[in-house]
Specification:
Distance between the termini: 45 Å
Oligomer: single chain
Number of strands: 0
Helix content: over 70%
Length: 207
């Protein structure tokens, strides 16, 4: 089960989180756009993702899309579903982090001649990244646990392996408790990494 977690659960979570962050950044910028249509698109996407269960999203992609001729293998289907889900939730985190940067930062960058794009990438986003680390880290830890849903579409990850072992040994209680312990240990390691990252980022902040 540990190997299944390292080979399945962690790569699935990392890939989904990385893609989800790209989606989230795009949606956050659209939400901050002055264009009403773009803001509406982003708001609709976020509303759909946050208003529907992750399991339903996963089933729509894996079991629903084949009905319209789109067949996706289990692992890519899980990555797509989890990425879209992360994108919907993390978009609001990133948007709030960007808005937390004082308006004076934009004005100062404009005074020294930086374009809006350079201001965003060189001034605003680095500051917003530090603010968003705790909630985004929590999102990633939740994703690691939610990745167990991928077992329902036959992705070979930690919980799927636990199901296979339990079905063979009939030791359901012991196997599922062991799986829960492994998830817990993974989350403890990730939480420790989150703490280290936060401390490193805080060293560059004036007190």
């Amino acid at each position: 089960m540990v190997l299944a977690g390292l080979r399945g659960t962690i790569p699935l979570s990392l890939a989904s989180f990385a893609i989800g962050l790209v989606i989230a950044l795009g949606m956050a910028l659209l939400r901050l756009s002055r264009n009403v249509v773009l803001r509406g698109v982003a708001r609709f996407y976020i509303s759909v993702i946050r208003g529907t269960p992750l399991l339903v999203q996963l089933f729509v992609i894996f079991y629903g899309l084949p009905a319209v001729g789109v067949v996706i293998d289990p692992f890519p289907a899980a990555v797509i579903a989890f990425s879209l889900n992360v994108g919907g939730y993390a978009a609001e985190v990133i948007r709030a982090a960007i808005l937390s940067v004082p308006r004076g930062q934009w004005e100062a960058a404009h005074v020294v001649g930086l374009s809006p794009r350079k201001t965003l990438t060189r001034i605003i986003l680095p500051q917003a990244a530090r603010v968003s680390v705790p909630p985004l880290s929590n999102t990633f830890i939740s994703l690691v646990k939610d990745s167990s849903l991928a077992s329902l579409i036959l992705v070979s990850e930690l919980f799927r392996q636990a199901q296979n072992i339990a079905a063979f040994s009939y030791e359901f209680m012991a196997i599922y408790l062991e799986a829960a312990l492994i998830y817990w240990l993974f989350c403890l390691v990730l939480s420790a990494g989150q703490g280290v990252l936060e401390r490193r980022l805080d060293r560059h902040v004036a007190r």
